[in-house]
Amino acid sequence: MDSEQSLKQQLATAVKARKQLEDTYESQFTILTQFVARLSLVCKGIDVELDNRLARLRQQLSNGTDLEKLLPQIDATSEHLKTLDTKQQQEVKKAQLTISEAGKLLQKQRGLPNQLRRDLRDLLSRVEEPAPTIHAYMPHLTHLTELYQLALNAKQSMELEDISDNSRYERICRQISVELTNLLSELAFEGAHAKAIDAIRQSLLGELSIEKLLEACLRTIEIIISSINEERQSAQHFLLKLNDALTSVQNSLVSSLKSTNNIRDKMALLNQQIEQQISVLSHETKSATSLEQLQRLVTDKLNTLSMSLKDKEALEKQEREILLSSVKEMDARLKELEEEAKQFKKRLAEQKFRSLQDALTELPNRAAFDERYELELKRSRRYNTPLSIVLADVDHFKNINDSYGHSAGDKTLKVIARALKQSMREADFIARYGGEEFILLFPETPLEQLETPLNILREKIKRIPFKFKDTNVPISISFGATQLKPTDEGREAFDRADEALYEAKRQGRDQVILKS
Ligand SMILES: Nc1nc2c(ncn2[C@@H]2O[C@H](COP(=O)(O)OP(=O)(O)OP(=O)(O)O)[C@@H](O)[C@H]2O)c(=O)[nH]1
Questions:
Q1: What is the whole-number distance in angstroms between the Cα of residue 178 and the centre of ligand 1?
Q2: Domain 231-355 adopts which CATH fold?
Q3: Tens of pLDDT, residues 162-186
Q4: What is the position in ligand 1's atom list of the atom closest to the CA of 434?
Q5: Is 231-355's fold the same as 366-515's?
Q6: Of 128, 213, 296, 459, which is most buried, counting CB atoms within 10 Å of its CB?
Q7: Is the CB–ligand 1 distance for residue 498 below 6 Å?
Q8: Is the CB of 476 under 6 A from ligand 1?
Q9: For residue 365, how far is its CA from the centre of ligand 1 (angstroms)?
Q10: Average pLDDT, the chain
Q11: Which of 376, 333, 341 has the alpha carbon at shortest distance from 483?
Q12: What positions belong to coiled-coil segments (predicted)?
């Protein structure tokens, strides 16, 4: 009974132990299954064969296959893992090489920001360090991609700057062209020079290339120099003539002086002879013993004396004639000189006038405006009277040039200039400021009094029947006006008028904007 009892107990213990063993095995199996499942998930995508092998293992584990049967599978998988490891080592090296080459290539790019260069150097030194797996390169790769992005951005903005450089360059070209056009309008020459200046002006109206601009500048300089030379030659010619005339006057004076000196000598001698004859006569008359002797003596001496007096008279006449002819000669030379000086003065006056006049519209030019503006500023400040300044600009004038040619544009400017000039009072002033822009000064006129007249003027210009190539072309003009303020300095008032004009253009053109 006891032994049966103990056998039963042993069996129960054995069953319990087996149950425990089975439980342990099952839980280890579950852990292994889970591990393989996780491992296959982590490794998924690294290698197709590994993926397949792990999938099969996972399947078998979940089917509860005997572990013994799994061993060859596990061996083959670990063999495959070994070859994968070698392959990975090669890939690590390849990744290192590729990243470092890409980094070095970026380093060679010009114009990278300094910080980017420093970051890149830092990254390259870290990439050179040995890495256990290819994954270690992932952050480097990400960093390198970021640096590439930054470098691309930097390059792009540099290119954009280049483009804006280009537009800045174009703007400068346009400015130079406008300045040169203005300068040309102030250079009023005659004849061949005028034609050459006009040709340059026309060339500036077309497309602007730097070559054309340079050519125009050089040609202008050439014309100015040649005109200065001509002026110098003309002044030299005048001075030479003056010198000639003075030399000839001097020569004539010297020769007449010499001749009169000569005559004076002869006269002195004659006077001496006459005195001598008189003293001989008086001496001899004293010693005369008879009346007859005295009479003969006096008659002889009187004859000699009368001859000497005739000689004296002749000499005096000769002297007078010499002096007269020399005075006549001098007078003729002086008259010539006077005529020459008159011509020269006239040329100077014309030149001064022409240098202040715009050749195309015959209005005062910008230089004339500058002179007048200064004067009106002073006047307005001294007498505390209002001064209004108006800028006028023909609207879309470029279209006229482009559609109907520059000579049509020129004619338009002339007509508009005349119309503007005709509508102004005697005391007002108008100048062509340059291109299709005019400047008007209204002394003793407050700004508010200008609105109506300027609008009338604007309407008047609009009503001019311009006709090009049988087409009626309406032309309008915009005005920007302001009044001089006591606080205005330098060009402040002018700039305000310019702002008003800009505003008129911005608001659709063909209008008057007052800016006080
Ligand atoms: N025919 C001719 N054209 C000139 C003269 N001076 C300047 N121009 C031209 O006038 C034009 C002015 O053009 P923009 O400054 O663009 O102005 P716009 O076409 O008048 O247009 P908005 O002023 O904006 O209304 C340019 O094409 C110049 O070449 C000139 O003496 N004669």
A1: 9
A2: Four Helix Bundle (Hemerythrin (Met), subunit A) (1.20.120)
A3: 666 677 777 777 778 877 877 777 6
A4: 6
A5: no
A6: 213
A7: no
A8: no
A9: 17
A10: 83
A11: 376
A12: 320-354
